[in-house]
Amino acid sequence: MHHPKVSLVLALLSTIGANSLGLELPVASSVYQDASLAQLTLGNTLQSPDGLFTFDNFSASGSSLPGISNLRIAAHSDGTTAWLTYTVPTNHRVLTDSESIDLAIEFSASHSDPLVELSTVSLDAQGATFGTAGSGVVQVTSRVFDGSAELAAITVGDYAGPLDDLYQDTPVQGANRWDVHLAIAASPGPDSGSAAVLSDFQLSFGTVRVPEPTSIALIVVGTACLAGATRFARRRAGAA
Questions:
Q1: Does residue 117 have a pLDDT over 60?
Q2: Backbone CA torsion sign across 38, 42, 43, 49
Q3: How many CA atoms are closer than 13 Å to the CA of 170, on its beta-carbon side?
Q4: Alpha-carbon span 16 to 134, nearest angstrom
Q5: I need a surface site. Which of 38, 84, 114, 137 has the fewest CB within 10 A?
Q6: Rounded to an integer, what distance in angstroms lies between the CA atom of residue 228 and that of residue 211?
Q7: Is residue 17 part of a domain?
Q8: Which string of b and e fits 182-210 if b means at least 16 CB within 10 Å?
Q9: How many structural domains compose the chain?
Q10: Can you tell me whether residue 37 is helix, strand or coil?
Q11: Is residue 178 assigned to a domain?
Q12: How many CB atoms are closer than 10 A to CB 161?
C-alpha cells in the first residue's frame, strides 16, 4: 500500500501526464510480425511468423520527411531465408518540389539456432521508378556487419530508369547475429516538374546450418578409420 504522499504524486502524474513534466517512463516492449518504423524504434521487436528470425534494436534518423516513420516493415521466413518487406506510405511514394527522404535505419538480426549462420544478403527494389523528367534520385543501400567487420554492402538505384528488375544477391561470411545499416534516399532533383517515386522494396537474409564441432570431429575420425581400414585390406591382399 502506497504512502498517502506517494499516492498523491502518482495521482498528479496520472492527471497531468508524465511526458509534460519531461519524465521518461519505461515503454513495454512487444513482439510484432508487421509494424511501423515508429513502433519499432520504441524498443519493440520484429519476429518472423515461425519464430526463427528476430529483428531488434531498431533506430532511425536523418529523414527530412517526418511522416516516413509510418513506413511499415513485415517479417517473413521459409525456415532458411528471412525477408523484410518495406511498405512505403502511399502519401510518400511520389516526391516533388522540396520533398526528400534521407533516412537511416539500423537494427540487429539473429537466428534462434546458434548453429545457423548468415550466408547471403539480397536487396530487391520492387518496382521503384522515376518521374518523366528523370532527374530524381532513388537509392537504397544495405550494409551488414558482424561486430565491426562489414560482411556485405549492396546499393540499388542512383540512376534515371526503372528499378523493377534490380536484384542483388551477395554471399557473406557467416554470423549467427548480425547488424544491418539501411539507408533510403529519394529526391525529385532540381528540375521543375520532376518527381521521384519510391515504392516497396525487400531485404532478404539467407542462412545455412553449420555442423556441430563434435560432428566435424566424428567425420574426421571416421574418414581416418576408413582410410586406415582400406590400406590394411590392400596390404593383406598383397601379402596373400
A1: yes
A2: negative
A3: 18
A4: 52
A5: 114
A6: 24
A7: no
A8: bbbbbbbbeeeebbbbbbbbbbbbbbeeb
A9: 1
A10: helix
A11: yes
A12: 10
* Helix H or strand E segment including 10: helix 4-16
- Please report whether residue 3 resides in a domain: no
- For the chain, where are the alpha helices, taking DSSP H only? 4-16, 37-40, 213-239
| Per-residue DSSP letter, 91 | G
The whole-number average pLDDT for the span 126-142 is 62
Rounded to the nearest 5 degrees, what angle is found at the Cα of 163, between the Cα atoms of 162 and 165? 115
Residue type, 101: I
Residue entry with cell 521508378:
129
Whether 21 maps to a domain, the answer reads no
Q: Which residues pair with 203 in a beta bridge?
A: 84, 123
Q: Which three cell numbers stand for residue 165?
A: 528488375
User: What pLDDT, in 10s, does the model give residues 11-52?
Assistant: 433 443 434 334 344 455 899 999 999 999 999 999 999 999
Mean pLDDT of 51-61: 97
Q: Give dist(CA 240, CA 236) in Å, integer.
A: 6
Alpha-carbon distance 87 to 164, whole Å? 15
Q: What is the DSSP letter of 222?
A: H
How many residues belong to the chain? 240
Q: Please state, in angstroms and rounded to a whole number, the distance separating the CA atoms of residues 195 and 188.
A: 4
8 backbone dihedrals φ, ψ, rounded to 5°: -65, -45
Amino acid (1-letter code) at residue 188? P
Determine the structural domain holding residue 69 and report its residue range: 30-233
Three-state SS at 92: helix
Look up residue 233 and give its amino acid.
A
Distance CA 35, CA 85 (A): 11
Q: In sequence order, what DSSP letters do the residues of 11-23 get, joined into one string?
A: HHHHHH-TGGGT-
**What cell was used for 43?**
524498443
